[in-house]
Fold each of these.
Amino acid sequence: MAFVGFFGGLAFLVNSNGNFTYLMILGGISLLASTGAGWLSILEYGPRQRNLAAREEADQELNDAFGDAVAELLREIILERTPEEQSWGSAFNSQYAPTLVGIGVDQAVSSSTYTELSKFIADHPTSAIGIAGPRGVGKSTLMEKLIAGRRDVVGVRIPAPKRYEPGALIRLIHGTIAQEILHPGAGIRATADLSKGRRRLMRRVGVGILFVAIAIGILFVWSIDQEKRTYDSSPGWRVSTLTVLCIAAGGIWLGLFIRSLWSTLWSLRHRFAFDSGLATSSRAVLQRLAREELEYLRYTTTTQAKGGMRLKTGFFTLSGEDQLTLAEREPNEADSAERLRQFLRDVTRIGDRPVILGIDELDKMDKPEDVVAVVNSIKDLFHIRGVHVLVSVSTDAMHSFAARGVIVRDVFDSAFDTVVEVRRLGPTESADLLARRATAFSFPAMYFCHAWSGGHPRDLIRAARSCVTLSAEEKKVLPLSVVVDHVLSEDILALLRATVDRLRSDTHTVAAVEDLIAFRDLLREESGALHNRIQSALKVATLPVIEGPVTEGSLMVQTLLPYLELAALTSVFFSVARGPRQWKKEEIEQTVSELAAAQASMSSHPMEAIRATRRVRASVERSLLADGGELPAPRVPQSGR
């Protein structure tokens, strides 16, 4: 639109016919105002578009969060007002739960682990903490909550690179902290979207075509006015249509010019204060420091010095010139680390607030040696006063690295002040999570999902989704024991398929495949309660025993027997039809916790799984005796015999 004022002012000057009248003055003002408004609009367009996009994104996130929170609250209210015979009964009638997916599951994290880490950070001026735990247990969420839970910190969470390059991680940390100081909440770098660039290009082309069309329209009106222009000697002031348009455009763009000028000057007030040295607040000083660090990281400085001498005597002239160019050398890893250490010291001193630095997802590194190199590279950042460093890696990755001869656990134990194992969810925490995500999901069913998932958030959601899927397919209320046996059977068959596939890939274990297939077929052919089917199948078929070198396949085979026994015990425990008072007993919740602990032990060494199933068998037997029943005589071979 600035071009409208520009061409309007130009037409004003043409209409003046060379006479320096008030029309020419008004045309000049319109021309200058429109040109200035256009220039300022160009400067203002980019920041305003970014602010608008950020505001729209924030509004969308707020609406989504608000809608999710309201839906979760309604589900909790519905569950609280459901009669006890349904909410604590041994029947299952949840057939619709669209939120039982992985979205938002990572927001679930053990409150006890969060409390422990928060207290450790608050009680120490500096710390280096390792965070371990299985994949999906909530390590990333724990870092984010530790950062977002305290407003008086500068916190960033940086995913580790897939491949380690000397100095690259240090520079990434350096730049991310500087960005966080300048733009709080932007500690995670956003990836580029190529579609945005194409859309922006199309918009610019469209605006250019519009400007050309407006200019042609103004010239067309001006040409018509020129043809109709007549002169007479009568007194008065006559103006053309184009003159009226120019007067209107001049007024409009004069207002836009003032508005754009004010907005531009207001947006540049901080930059002016930084550059002039007038900024005195700690935040202003920190932001100026962050800008300087970003310039250091992004650009290479080149300094030139030039000197000359000239001597003239008579007909002769003697001259000389020297030039010296200095280019800053590329800093090595040690230089980058020292610069970052100094930057962190300045941030904690000037801002008077701690820095929490999280290095996440070391699991995705291909080489175990890279994990060790990353830990060694960030050791220089440990124990700077006011700086807390958190580094996470999954226990699964540790075991995998150990199998390849690199003991990452030793590196963690020696490098960090403490290594915290992220605890799994407890029965109450699992019930709270499911109560916010599903309707008509009974508490005994929540207990089963917690026990069979081992308190792992993602496995908890998968187990709950399997329960709802079965109920929706049957379209009727099902006994809880039927739902439990169905979910257990599906998981057992999936484990047997995975074990067979693993044994086939190894020449030392391929002979054991036939026994596993025979056992799987027997388990499918049997009918009745799952624990009886497992006992009958094991009575006829035997699980293979693999001798020789320890491989992943042999470990899976050794874990099969305790896994089957745990499934049988879970089936027996949840096959009892209890009333609300019985389900609410403390002994029941304790047994559920022990079942979950035994399930969690299945991912460790087979001997640990065997010991865990022995403990949980005694607990299940005690709970059944308290309910007036007893544990059936075990036909499943006792683990460890």
Amino acid sequence: MIELPATRNPTTSAAPTGSAAPTASAAFTASEASAGTATSALTWSGGRLRRHGVPHRILSGGLHYFRVHPELWRDRIRRLADLGLNTIDTYVAWNFHQPREDEAPRFDGWRDVERFIRLVGEEGLDVVVRPGPYICAEWSNGGLPSWLTARDVALRSSDPAFTAAVGRWFDELIPRLAALQAGAGGPIVAVQVENEFGSYGDDQAYLRWNREALTSRGIGELLFTADGPTELMLDGGTLPGTLAAVTLGSKPAAARRLQAARRPDEPFVVAEFWNGWFDHWGEQHHVRGVDSAVRTLEGIIADGGSVSVYMAHGGTNFGLWAGANEHEGRLQPTVTSYDSDAPVAEDGSLTPKFHAMRAALGARGPLRVPERLPVLPPARVPLVRRAGLLPGLLALPAPATVEPRPASFERLGLDAGMVLHTAHPRIPEGEHRLTLTDVRDRAMVFCDGAFLGVAGPGLPELSVRGSGAVVRLEVLAESLGRVNYGPGLGRHKGLLGPVLVDRRIVQGWESRPIALQEWTTTDLATATSAGSVSATGSDAATIAGDSAVVGEFAGGAPVGAGFSEAIVRVETPADTFLALPGSGRGLVWVNGFLLGRYWDIGPQVTLYCPAPLLREGDNVVTVLELERPGDVLELRDRAELGPPEEYVEEFG
């Protein structure tokens, strides 16, 4: 157990609201560079870290409150303590707290980050907070709200339009964190300045603004930056007077030498040790061998090094919060599971990696937690068809716009989900080329109710037959996840470019948002009772076989696509893993809670359903299938995350 220091009053200087970034003259001078304030819990000198003057090593693990059901927070915290850690670090996801600009940020329920931090303290651990505002984390938009990235703003920069918005967010967030600092009797001992900025940009004025935004709002504990261990990244992301930590998956000795050459007085701190990796749809399941992970961990903590295991427990990208990457212009959407091959698995199970790391960290004594929480017995439950795709999606009223061109997600104020675009062009007799010039990320196209195919960046063209009459052209645009890393951060979603019939632009569009992530239990019930399941039925037989291939993602004709339900009877709620054999691609709700996305291209096969989402008696599982519906829901007793592939991230 770690003793918390005596209570003191945190800094209470006035916080600037929406101020622009400082000029270069505001940088810390050499004389101001320090190893933390006199009252900080953590300080350093001579290359060594100290906690209240006593030699100390941070043994931390990543655990994100927004990826774990709140009723399981304490259980997961205890598992990390049993791993041998003395600290937990967490990001704060701005868009999770404030999805709409016209509504104040929320800090209740699942968003009660203060409660999470207090729980960590109650379990005897320190806390490192990484408030961003950008967090990456394979989280939608890197944690930035889409209402902000919708604007013509230079993201993560000293652009006053960006810093003003961040300043208002920090006005809400940072005083809450300041009150939980070690100096105020709380568990927070360190706070990160931005996040891996050196792999994004080199606006030093912005980094200084970010640091000042923290200190002026009451942060008095240790501040640090974190960047990959390369000259390029450290040049862009570090600040004089602020501890420079690194992030890595391998080669800790090389990183230590680089840091010692650049910052000889600072301790070696690895703010993220990637002992596993995340997955994209359509790829294999990334794992990291136990021996490989432990060897690197031992190399980090040798000679007083500090570490944060990323992730120690990954959790789940519930809802539509999973992010995406881009590679050579191709979107790589992240899967629902964020298991990350962590030592504590997605369902809390203790893995072989857990026990090997625990030994390496020198943890002793009995475990306080069970190796695994109870699970429901395997079962098969029939899926009952309820409503067709378009009738179900259109059952809920939504404020549509009518404009010459299709409205983007951002123009409609929609963060995630779908938009149904409808136009009425006249199409001459015969076969014509229908081109969707810029779809982000996927679009199902219908003409007079008949399904034409799927369009996207890899296949923008479909064939349409006209008779000389006006037709009802419907385009259902879907986001597969907002980019969370790199120059693609903040890209807009939806039907962004013109739709052409041959060379002629189709104009006059009604755009209707479908905010699936915001649907309530009542909304879901309305959708599932909204009409015939044959609304998009056998018309699909006219589709060309290759028209549903979009880039790397295979899809099929939506024969019977729409809403289905299964009733799962439970005696005592426990964890379970849901699978949909025979189904193609879609979303799953459990008792009105959006569990996440499934997709038969893998690698993920099962969706983790934690026990707190279930209740004694009947539980309603709702499935929105977008391609081909199966006829059964399976409850399995363990996760199936796909064929494994060894992956170790390396720099240089």
Amino acid sequence: MIETSLFGDLVVELPQAVRLQRLVGAVRAHFGCGAVGLLKADGDSLRPIAVDGLAHETLGRRFLLAQHPRLSAILASREPVRFPPGSPLPDPYDGLLDQHLGEPLPVHDCMGISLFLNGSLWGALTLDALSGDVFGKSARDELVQMTLVAEMVIRFIWLEEENRRLRAGRIVQDASLPVSGGDDEIEIIGQSPQLLVLLHELDIVAASELPVLLLGETGVGKELFARHLHRASKRASGPLVQVNCAALPESLAESELFGHIKGAFSGALGERAGRIEAAEGGTLFLDEVGELPPPVQAKLLRTLQNGEIQRLGADQPHQVDVRIVAATNRQLQDRVREGHFRADLYHRLSVYPVQIPPLRERGNDVLLLAGRLLEINRTRLGVRGLRLSPRAETALCTYPWPGNVRELEHVISRAALRAISRGADRSGIVTLEPELLALDLPDSELLSPALSASLDAMPAAVNVPLKTAVDAYQRQLIRQALADCDGNWARAARDLGLDASNLHKLSRRLGLKA
């Protein structure tokens, strides 16, 4: 019985992602359908958090309810909603089913049901069958029973997270299942172990008042992690004020940060509070803090030491209650040795340094992020469907991403525009090939993904750690073997010369399986 297996999971300590993946996998096996999706309501959209039978990139997508009438209909009903073959409503999963990647879905049967947590709408469970007349009345009745199990699993996960937060001294203010993401402006997408460990670390340090220094390469999204830190802190109800230190003119930097009084300088016609005062009771985020001019560094040190600021031209300082989070892509120790950054300020800012991993070290997170960007561009360009070909997925996972997430955003946007400019049909499923991505990869990566290519013949990516390059190559080989074997893991293991259990373990480590 599916209920028995899922109830058994509740007495075992498992990661959230594993619980949810087992849930959708069990639902798919029970109904024998082509795909199952578990989606969480998030404002005016639904966010996939576990899928089975759908492309991995689906987890990064967001489905706006205004654009997806099937999903809207499911959320509007407390009973199962069926969309029989021939339904005129567009299917949100066009081009995303594993068995029909990049193709409009053939005649098929679909149903879904809304899910509730603590009496409030939580999300939806969707099922797609690749043949007609699969979901009759008995199947819909079974889905009602299955929903009770799904809601119990969701509630159990929520209770686990609430308990962890209470132990950390933080109060859960809503009944939402914690997953990566949130509002578009602060969304962090990914399921890699590196990212999950980082988010857990930020949640712990958020409860303190310690200054935090976010370190990482250009484009890794330091601003998003600063916002996550603020939202997870006790100051979440206060303001988050961001300052791009690199964009501050040296002549105005002191006034911008600390404010000024009337007559402090030519053009100061009245008093003006600075950015630090604007962050009273909240968080001040100093992006590219290594670019601060030396005179401002001295005054910022005083703020960190004593909680005091002094407006430009004022005689007396006054107290402020502000937490400072700083970020830099520079090696501040080098700036200190070169005399461009104060050593005492560096030590004050880096009480708790946090290293944000580059995109090339986050495994399959690149596909989730690409899925989100594909959905954004699909809406922006008015395309029915926009997805990656299997070769394009391999190219994205192999490329070293020197510009990180910001570069990925530009690559996906350019590729989508290229596809449209070259005559792609907006009313169909537009598939992006590696040539459209225009990544700087060896030709063998783009044009010859054959399994027989040897590791020695594969040119190493520039400035990529050996482990990262090997992991990327292993992912490529496993994907190709699975494609050649029609998704049969046992056959793929034999072709790769591996024991099946070892292939499953390796795939989980590489992020190819939950």
